[in-house]
Specification:
This protein is α/β, with parallel strands linked by helices. It is built from 8 helices and 8 strands, in the order E-E-E-H-E-H-E-H-E-H-H-H-E-H-E-H. The chain has helices spanning about 40-45, 70-80, 95-105, 130-140, 145-150, 155-160, 180-185, 210-220; strands at about 1-10, 10-20, 20-25, 50-55, 90-95, 115, 165-175, 190-200. Strands 1-2-4-3-5-6-7-8 form an 8-stranded mixed β-sheet, with helices on both faces. Helix 7 links the parallel strand 7 (about 165-175) and strand 8. It is globular, with a radius of gyration of 16 Å. The relative contact order is 0.15.
Amino acid sequence: MTENYCSTNGIELFYKKRGKGRPLLLLHGNGESNVIFDALCDKLSKDYIVYSIDSRGHGKSSVVKELDYNVMAEDIVGFIKTLELQKPILYGFSDGGIIGLIIAIKYPELLSNLIVSGVNIAPSGIKIIYRYLFRLIYFFTKSHLYRIMLTQPNIENSELKKIKVPVLITAGQNDMIKDIHTKMIAENITESELLILPKESHSSYIVNSDKMYGIIKSFCKRRF
């Protein structure tokens, strides 16, 4: 495994690289870093060259005052182009999945496959009890980590229809994203599959877990 920084979009993105095979990017969720994928990377690196990245304002990447999903998507596009990665697979969890959707919408030829977990296309897609909690935390902290979840993303159904690559959407049975919202996302992406994992929460099968290994590998093998 190697650790490095990539200069892109005016910032520095920290990333770890390991394995061999097709390139696969891993994008974490809000307030996290690449370390949530360590267990998953240990397995994925047997089949892929895995790039686990810290998003701007997270982990060891550049500190920023504000976060914007569209800007964060451009960070990853710049990363792909700077490293000259050809048709990488992208797996994004939560905020990382939102970034993945935006990339697939704006750059339909850039990726080969997209897998997203616990993703929403509007703040209203989050169950109301969690939105109330985020509002309370933001009221006291004014943290940009919570501001972005309360105000973004704002992706239209018509934009989802622009996605051309095969997409796998996963969610936990007890996810913080509304079931109807997750299903709506899948219904509006032509080349999509939906997988709801029984008894799982938003992050229980993602953070410090390798449960997504077989799911990612099977999907990419079938839909390459």
